[in-house]
């Protein structure tokens, strides 16, 4: 995909490149690609005896596909929340993913926070769309060793009443910094009390630090503006055409 992007801009004169530098100043961490991460996730699911929870951003479609494929390979039902179901519905006409209501691979769980929103907003059309695939928590708990369930830490109190089933495995596929929040501290405690475990299974979608200079030099823009980075000064160590712009500052592209 990077090569395709560079090919697309190779014949153009680029005035300005807004460039993320997430990994400048941070360790690159795991450098697995999505296929390698899928193998790791599948192995953990296969080795789990109880309910498996998956915490990730449903908008991260590659990661969503990883968990779908892991559920297929291990013979588990992939239980998505209503939001994830709607993401699959939106992209399902353009990509080869299972669509809730049209695939036996998926069931849809309606978390309490979603049901509360339906009651006071215009989300009823989403709730109605996936009723045929709906699954309740009682059924999930009764077949917990056969389910891989999309999970948010807020669901611990609102849906699980503060307790998780014995031997639950939570596969955490987000930035590790979120684990310091109160809701994840409570989730880790709930897992520990039931002989469960939290496993970090993540690989960054951001460009690795060693690849940033290669990409920027290949684009060869007249100016480079650092964005999404804690170390904007790091750009000036690599490039002579850096334009550091503060939040709210206006600038014109010549």
Layout of helices and strands, plus pairs?
Elements lengths: L1 H8 L6 E5 L13 H14 L4 E4 L5 H14 L2 E5 H10 L14 E4 L2 H9 L3 H6 L7 H6 L4 E4 L4 H4 L10 E4 L9 H12 L3 E4 L10 H9 L3 E5 L5 H4 L18
Parallel strand pairs: 1-8, 2-5, 2-6, 3-4, 3-5, 6-7
Helix pairs in contact: 2-3
Entry summary:
By secondary structure, the chain is an alpha/beta fold.
Describe, in plain words, how this protein is organized in 3D.
The chain is of the alpha/beta class. The protein contains eleven helices and eight strands. α4 (82-91) links the parallel β3 (77-81) and β4. The protein is elongated and about 60 Å long.
Descriptors:
254 residues; alpha/beta; 11 helices; elongated
Query: How many DSSP helices?
Result: 11
Query: What does the largest sheet look like?
Result: 6 strands, parallel
Tell me the overall shape.
elongated
| Helix-strand category | alpha/beta
Gyration radius from CA atoms, angstroms: 21 Å
Give the overall average pLDDT.
Answer: 93
Q: Which ranges are low-confidence, i.e. pLDDT below 50, for 5 or more consecutive residues?
A: none
Spatially, the strands of the biggest sheet line up as 4-3-5-2-6-7
- Count of extended strands: 8
